[in-house]
Amino acid sequence: MFRSFLLCFVMTLTGVAAAAESYPLLEVARQRAGDLRFSVYATADSVIRLADRKSARDDALDAMRRLGISTIYIEVYRGGLVVPPEKLISVRDFFRDNDVSVAGGIATVPGKGFGVASNEGLHWFNFEAPETRRALEQVVRQSAPLFDTFIVDDFLCTGDTSEISNAARGDRTWSQYRRDLMVQVAKDVLIGPAKEVNPSIQMVIKFPQWYDLFHVYGYDVEREPELFDGVRVGTETRGATTQRYGFVQPYEGFINYRWIARKSYGKIGGAWFDYGDCVEHDFIDQAWQSVVAGAPELIFFSLGDVVKGHPDHARLQHEFTALADLAAAVRVNPVGGTLGYKPPNSDAGDDLYLMDFIGMLGVSLEPSPIFPADVGTIFLPTQAAANPQIMELIAPELVPGRHIIMTPGFIARSPDPAAMAKLAGLAAPVVLQPLKATTAPVGVNQVAVENGLDLAADLKVAGAEVLLEAAVGDHNVPFLTSFSVNGARVSVLNTRTFSQADFDAVGEVLLSPRPLGLLNLPQEWADVIRAELMGGRDWQLRAPTRVTCQQLGRTGWLIQNYNEHAVEATMHFANSPQLNNAITGEPIAVENQGIKIDLPARGRLWIKRTEANNGSSREVG
Predict the structure, then answer these.
(1) pTM, whole model, 2 decimals?
(2) What is the pLDDT of residues 446-474, one digit of tens each?
(3) Other CB atoms within 10 Å distance of the CB of residue 603
(4) Which of 27, 46, 258, 293 could bridge 20 with an S-S bond, Cβ 3.0-4.6 Å?
(5) Handedness of CA 191, 192, 196, 199 (dihedral sign)
């Protein structure tokens, strides 16, 4: 018996050594698991293949080890396909036996003979239908005993307007009804039955990335994080220049994660992104924005794509240590800067996903679902007007040194539009009227703006200084204004992104429906906008659009170039700090209190202060 035990022990050690030699990232990933972990999600059809074919299991394990993946989520149901418990057990045990953590998952989407599909919206359920609830509860009850952790993929929403839903809605808005409905489904169909059959199970909700429309289709960022044991967040921004998944900007992953994190009751545990519409660089870009947002776990969707391979896998392997270092750094020094206020369940009007585009102008913008008191710079888009006490909240903030930035949508939809316009040095009323300029003046020249520059209103100043203006028809319209109030400053950014009408025009439901000229502005304009929205700091970035800059407390900056060509940028400082490249460890020379930054196409630079007293406190505003 002892000889058999010794032989098994030696074989185990040999296997571990062989794995370390064959999969160099695997051992590094295990050592850095406290900073950053990689996981993968296997859909129901993949789970069936894993259960039925040894070759599928071997291929999956090989691909996962190459990427240092330590956890697999195995799905129990999707689109009418229910994975039998015996197959779930065989797949679960295979991975556990190979030192891979296992969790369960479910995609609550309809399929043939399973529940009732929504009559409107995307491929979602009618959750009011009893058949839907019964079918889902049965799956949860039979699969929950098999797992310690169970994640609900991002289909816990509905667009249904059928007779049964309309009757249940009563006098509530569709948004309120759907949020109430999905909270009830979460409790009665998912969490309750799961904990009844497995009291120790951890139930996790995964929010999608379309944060500005959550409340419209039933996601409730106030109540659902409190119900679930854990929270994961979609940061799947994919390709920014294609229609397939919307013209979603890379900064959106950061905005979505940070916004939900502030309402997660400390339960947020990771980001989730996919391979869909991801060409070279798109996949790895999602990783960097997820990590700088604070994600300690990255969940790749899905296993089939991990096995298939992707050009960015080599980058993921090469950049793992830098990503883990960044994850450790932002845990102590999270991104700070201008705080954008978006209350939960707030309508965006003409400012849908505006924060994503502001971030793409190089503004270190962090979102907040809570009004950010005691910060230097606050950004108020239309969403902020949903708070009926917003005027009372703003007034105390207008003290010397404070800076409030508004959009016309916020002014027009605030409880007192005339008073808000006066506060900004504008003539009332501010009437929302979509306008488009085709050029941006730079000195005596007019620079063409691809896709045109969208403006929200024909503003008239009443004391405010015009920093930028664009020609619309036969007259100039202020685009960026600044006004002093009691030593404080109020700025207005006269931009417009999308409204529901823009979505309807192209049949889009959730994601950005078209490209914006805002990201095609000349650098001279981008520099002015960035300086105004990030003023009052001891540093200043000058760079083209589509170059992001996220300030890591007082310790450094992550600068990323999302252009398809190399760019030059500069940073200027109030003093001459000691800096290095945190990715390579090389020093960065500071000359005349500034540095020149050469960024390759889709490249990045993590600048780190190296002064002994750089501190670890967060700098906000």
Answers:
(1) 0.95
(2) 999 999 999 999 999 999 999 999 999 88
(3) 16
(4) 27
(5) positive
